[in-house]
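Re: your question from the hallway

Yes, I did run it. Sequences:
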Amino acid sequence: MNYFVNRLLYLLVVFVIAISGVFVLVNNMPGDPAYGLAVYIAQQRNMQFEQALEIAHKMMGIDPHESVVTRYVKFMNNLLRGNFGYSTFYNTSVNEIIARALPWTLFVISLATFISFSIGIYLGAFAAQKRGKTIDTLISTLASIIQAIPPFILAVLILFVFSVRFRLLPLGGAYPVDMEPSLSISFIGKVLLHAVGPILAVAIPQMASWTLSMRGNTAQVMEEDFIRFAEMRGLADSVIASKYIRNNAMLPLVASLAIGIGYMLGGQTLVESIFNYPGIGFYFGKAIAVRDFGLLTGLFSLIVIGVIVATFVADFVYALIDPRVKLK
Amino acid sequence: MRKESLKNFYYDYIQPLLVNKKSLIGLIILTFFILMATVGPLIVPLDMTSNFAERYQKPSLKHPFGTDYFGVDIFQQIVHGSRSVISLTMLASFFAVLIGTVIGVARGYLEGIVGRAIDAIIMVFLVIPSFPALLILAAVFMNYNLNVVEIALLVAVWLWAPLAKQISAQVLSLKSKEFVEASKMLNMPLRYILFSDIAKLLIPYIFINFVMQIKGAMEFSVGLMFLGLAKFDPTHWGIMLNYALYQAGALYTAKGFHYIFFIILNIVLLIYGGILLSQGVEEVFNPRLRGNE
Amino acid sequence: MSIIIRVEDLRAVYLVREGTIKAADGISLDILENSVTAIVGESASGKSTIIEAMTKTLPPNGRILSGRVLYKGKDLLTMREEELRKIRWKEIALVPQAAQQSLNPTMKVIEHFKDTVEAHGVRWSHSELIEKASEKLRMVRLNPEAVLNSYPLQLSGGMKQRVLIALALLLDPVVLILDEPTSALDVLTQAHIIQLLKELKKMLKITLIFVTHDIAVAAELADKVAVIYGGNLVEYNSTFQIFKNPLHPYTRGLINSIMAVNADMSKVKPIPGDPPSLLNPPSGCRFHPRCEYAMEICKKEKPKWIRLDGEAHVACHLYEEGRPLK
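Structure:
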């Protein structure tokens, strides 16, 4: 238990450092914190820089006479109360945007993770059992080719092939603009159809990496002495394959599963942007594009919280399922 | 003497890579792109003037990869863009390895509070989701018109941490090994121990990691360019992709397929070359690394 | 006593990149029922290969080239896999050398007992299983309540070795084969295990075969000793006779080397030279390069496996020529 308390404290420190880092980065740029935004506004609206700077100050809620320290204390204080800040671009609180976007992101990543993990584990174990045979070479080569495709590039390909060329999938969004959200079957069907693109773009690269890790782990476990001893005891191959090989090979992967979900919260910025899928990543991309630093810091805080919670959960899960860790 | 050590270097590090199938193919792919970046622009001229009469031409002898929305030859752009793609990727990998090695070795050697502080820094960079953080950093610096070296540094900041962690662990374990103990007992200076004993064992490690960084560096830099966050070269493939999708709308017209396809093909092939080489390097050198543990 | 296992001209090799390792080269051996047989040899002399080939549990790169292993008149080597699986563990149990890594780290000890029983179609209720497992664990001097619900990493090296023995005894096998039961253990634990095997031998009607590099262990436990050198069986005799009157020059060297440990250091007579490479073994008698009695014929011809008076068997030209060691 002591271990977990330590770990939690440690992750909290990491959180504070990370968030403070971003705050300092955004707010304490050489010169004026609103400089970047002001340049952007001046370009966009074709106005004088001084005028733009004034607008930028207002938009960011900065009083130029207030010290950075005061602002930092305010910001952290708000964060502690669960207030993620204010978006100047959307003219609403970041909390409201999170409430709107988070369900979509969670929906996509949980489905994508579930699909990629189950298929990847199966394929990896299968390839390892057939090590050196053609089917193994095929699976591993395909998997490493897929790994060479960044998810957002895959998203572009999927969008082009399935949406533009063959018109099988919608061009973007989470559901048709002309539909009112409801619990009707047709609406749910549309929601699923809109999610296919983002899910594929996230799941396929994931699947490749699960496959490769599972293949490596399985091959390693197959060399272990306890496998030979199980064979000597006359256990059936199916029992050895599941209880001895698969269970041991899978353990480390189950833990990374939790961490993976945490990282995907913010890691799918480009994929969601390409599909115009209104999740956290989409708003993050938008915040970058329009230099909405309030929204940016708020969403980033959420992403870091997600990663930290996931890391903690992963530790916990690992300790729960692996006696080697549990007993230490 | 020099000749002898060069020969040894060839047999120890180069020849095994030419024998391994994966690293050989990876090397061929990377060499192809490096040639494209160095010699290519000298042979292939770049003409960026718009010629709407030739918009979206299919690949032909005249235009091997076809033309884009503005009627500009895509092949020429790819060749000229490879220069900034390769230099950005290599520089970013180099910086990442440099930062990771320096911090990792420092962590391995420094004990007490300083060591723990470095640990915490490494941990922070390990935990923070790197791509969103990179985007924020890039957005903050966007209006400063960064050059290749500066962008490479921005990317490298988010790549070095895993390497630093591995190296610090290696140094810590090497530190306790007998021969380091021995050089301490023989009263040799710390500097000597550091460079002679440890550096020797870390070289293959650093080499492997440089190659392994290529994938991350490529993905990050192309992603940055794709979002239009660093625009120093209009023919960088990430920026080409950005133009193709958002300026020219090539994504939404079936005629533009070859435009997107050839950009993507080159990006993926280059990353795949890096992956193959790193898999090969790992296969060749890792047993040796494990032997050192 | 009757013969329970008869090994005839067993040949097994390992395929490695550099060639084939001729690890067991024409082994013939009779194992007597309810006896304890020690197979003694230096490391990499092929002694483990013999028992692994006998039970068809060689690692993937191992191949059996020829020979027969007759158990109750049936050849284990040509038996169908299904039939062999039934005999394995139920009648012939093998405790491997790597005792420390032989249990599944993610399974409790009890589950190992459970799946072993299930694999052999034995229908025991859970309480029966616990009862039987506890009985065997007590037999190896372990506390069943504590051990059964432990994970392997909670056990010490000696405890793991005992769990493997208990596991091997679970289905009351006729033959128990142990590969280096005392290696990788500290001296005290080694003594415990030897003591334990002695007790088992008294307690149970069982045939024990064990492999060891330590001839002292053989002296303490075995009724009969088989000496292996470079993949060949060189001598086979009752323990008493082997120590009293070693026939083969190699056996004599082995025994001299242990006598020296607790005797006068000046009389230490280690065998000069190195163990042979099994990739390219020496011609003729594989011991000839290290043998002080080597003759011309030893370099050319492989000595025959001959039976002398009593139980004594030896492979040495000295005896074929009728010039025994004095």
